[in-house]
Design brief:
- Keywords: Membrane, Transmembrane, Transmembrane helix.
- One of its GO terms (cellular component) is chloroplast inner membrane.
- By secondary structure, the chain is mainly alpha-helical.
- The protein has eight helices and no strands.
- It is globular, with a radius of gyration of 24 Å.
Length: about 200
């Protein structure tokens, strides 16, 4: 009879094991809440710099991953002759911007996501709210910088930067109005940018 009781006591002393995935998720949420709390106490320049850097790192990871999936197609593109007209050269640069390897894609996505997050952070802190106007200003900045960094500008860099910025702003404003989740928005915006670049006329 004592053996039965000892078995019960031993069972009670051994804690039930928690699902390791749930444990990791709970720990990640705690760390994220602590980080957000710390970030909210910082000055605007520090918060903007940290948000920009972390979002750029995330964008670089996404771009690098996408670049490994598409492999380096830029090596398969022919070299344009030296006397190529500016419109043909702009089309060639668009193809290069989208077909680069992991490093090119990582750079492009880092700029796009970092600038967007940084401007969003500043606008939210200055205006006290996150609304469609703030979202569109951030999208305009990220679209303009993406156009400049990716080399898709052609002969008129300023005009193309403004055009890309307006396109990004309109897309993000429309998606914001439809109330699409932020994570889904990033994926949709990437697809929109790729569609725009692939199907734009030279």
């Amino acid at each position: 009879m004592e053996q039965g009781k000892q078995g019960v006591v031993v069972q009670k002393m051994i804690p039930q094991q928690q699902n390791p995935i749930e444990h990791i998720q709970a720990r990640f949420k705690e760390l994220e809440a602590g980080f957000r709390g710390w970030l909210a106490k910082q000055s605007l320049p520090v918060e903007a710099a940290v948000v920009t850097a972390t979002s750029a790192a995330q964008g670089a990871a996404i771009g690098g991953f996408m670049g490994t999936l598409t492999s380096d197609l830029s090596s398969s593109l022919p070299t344009p002759p030296p006397q190529t007209n500016p419109q043909a050269m702009a089309s060639f640069k668009q193809a290069q911007a989208l077909s680069g390897g992991p490093f090119v894609q990582a750079r492009n996505f880092a700029v796009m996501t970092g600038v967007n997050a940084g401007i969003s952070c500043v606008m939210k802190r200055l205006r006290g709210k996150e609304d469609v106007q703030s979202s569109m200003v951030a999208a305009f900045g990220s679209g303009a910088m993406f156009s400049l960094v990716s080399g898709m500008g052609g002969p008129n860099l300023a005009g193309n930067a403004v055009t890309s910025g307006l396109f990004f702003a309109l897309v993000q404003g429309g998606l914001f109005k439809v109330s699409i989740n932020r994570k889904e928005f990033i994926i949709l915006r990437v697809v929109q940018v790729l569609q725009r670049c692939l199907f734009s006329s030279p």
